[in-house]
Write a structure and sequence with these properties.
364 residues; alpha+beta; eight-stranded antiparallel sheet; two-stranded antiparallel ribbon; binds adenosine-5'-diphosphate; binds D-arginine
Length: 364
């Protein structure tokens, strides 16, 4: 029996007028939708669930399966070109060569900064988080255990896994969980995020979720967040390039594990839940003090200048959080798709210089 989508289609028509910034709603075309078979109609509307429930969304959709981007090419090509400002037939290319010279912020007159570079990865043979059931989520966590055992035995990456799954042999305590969050080593409860909840990404919380953290707390692998995996290196350092190189080594070590095949596409690069992360799935960030640009506690001026340099400003707790009381912001390149990993790192390096100069110019 085909589902009656009359109410949803009416809501979409209303949101087209009332939510102009909601990319998914604006890209949705009812005439195209009505050409789809019933199962695909259900599947594409599931992708829009978050943007339908949260009109203030900027992206407004998440893919539920790795092949959604090809299966619904008409819709996602529009979404991707609108968000990433790329041609509708754009093809992503990755490049991990790294910079030709060291990137040492000491040369910019800066002290060691908190630097974090993360990539999202999804296993090719499981649904993406918004379409997973409890068994899928548990299967993901189980599949990662031999990988974590191998990392734990590696002198470069030794550490341990902290599970949030009730009854898991590595289940972490509530206090430890919150301490890990406070140290930016673990993600917050997903069911407190309205976008992830409406998308289904927070489903079955906290089953199948956890984080691998190295003993020196610089290597972190999240399991079961917005993507199946968020693989990251984070440290307080002056050398951006060394974080990049360490992440590349960590990824090589993980990808050498026979149990894992990641979802990738010749056209889109690394497949991710959110279209904003497609391609590199990389966010490279620093916590940078901008006391003059954020005078009065507002991040408005810092965001304007950052945007002009292809950068985003987030708060100290990451997305949807406030900047630091001392004017410290989370600064990172905005682009993920049709940019290489090396180019993202270079954009962060040049962006740090530009924002520090802009901050200094306020008082000169
Ligand atoms: P993501 O970066 O994975 O897209 P968020 O922006 O929400 O997600 O950040 C996730 C966590 O990582 C937050 O606790 C945030 O404060 C932390 N974080 C991000 N960048 C840095 C950084 N450069 N130094 C320390 N913590 C960071
Ligand atoms: N609230 C979502 C955020 C999209 C980008 N951030 C991610 N993927 N964490 C929106 O659609 O605006």
């Amino acid at each position: 029996m085909a589902t009656d989508h009359t109410e949803t289609l009416a809501r979409l028509a209303n949101l087209k007028a009332s939510a102009p910034q909601n990319i998914a709603v604006q890209a949705f075309d009812q005439q195209w939708f009505e050409t789809l078979p019933a199962t695909d109609q259900d599947r594409i509307l599931a992708c829009l669930a978050s943007g339908l429930a949260n009109p203030d969304s900027e992206m407004g959709c998440y893919a539920g399966h790795a092949d959604d981007y090809d299966r619904f090419k008409t819709f996602f090509s529009d979404v991707l070109s609108h968000h990433h400002k790329t041609p509708s037939d754009a093809v992503h290319r990755s490049d991990w060569a790294g910079p030709s010279a060291p990137m040492d912020v000491t040369a910019l007159g800066l002290p060691p900064l908190s630097v974090r570079i993360r990539v999202g990865r999804n296993l090719a043979d499981l649904p993406l988080p918004s379409a997973m059931g409890a068994k899928d989520r548990q299967a993901l966590e189980d599949r990662m255990q031999p990988v974590f055992t191998a990392l734990a035995a590696d002198p470069q990456f030794g550490g341990g896994y902290h599970s949030l799954t009730p009854g898991h042999k590595a289940e972490t305590s509530r206090d430890t969980y919150h301490s890990l969050i406070d140290r930016h080593l673990m993600f917050r409860p997903l069911d407190t995020d309205p976008y992830l909840t409406a998308a289904g990404i927070a489903g079955n919380w906290p089953v199948g979720r956890g984080a691998y953290v190295s003993h020196d707390q610089t290597v972190i692998i999240w399991v079961g967040e917005e993507d199946h995996l968020r693989i990251m290196v984070m440290d307080r350092t002056t050398r951006l390039d060394q974080i990049f190189t360490r992440l590349r080594g960590l990824l090589d070590r993980i990808e050498a594990q026979p149990v894992l095949e990641f979802a990738t596409s010749a056209r889109f690069g690394n497949i991710t839940s959110c279209p904003t992360n497609l391609g590199t799935a990389m966010r490279a960030s620093v916590h940078l003090a901008l006391p003059n640009l954020t005078r009065g506690g507002s991040d408005k001026t810092a965001k304007q200048i950052a945007r002009a340099h292809g950068l985003s400003v987030r708060g100290m707790g990451g997305e949807h959080t406030a900047i630091g009381n001392d004017g410290t912001v989370d600064l990172s390149p905005s682009a993920r798709f049709c940019i290489t990993e090396t180019e993202i790192l270079i954009r962060l390096w040049t962006g740090i210089q530009a924002l520090k100069e802009a901050d200094q110019a306020v008082i000169d």
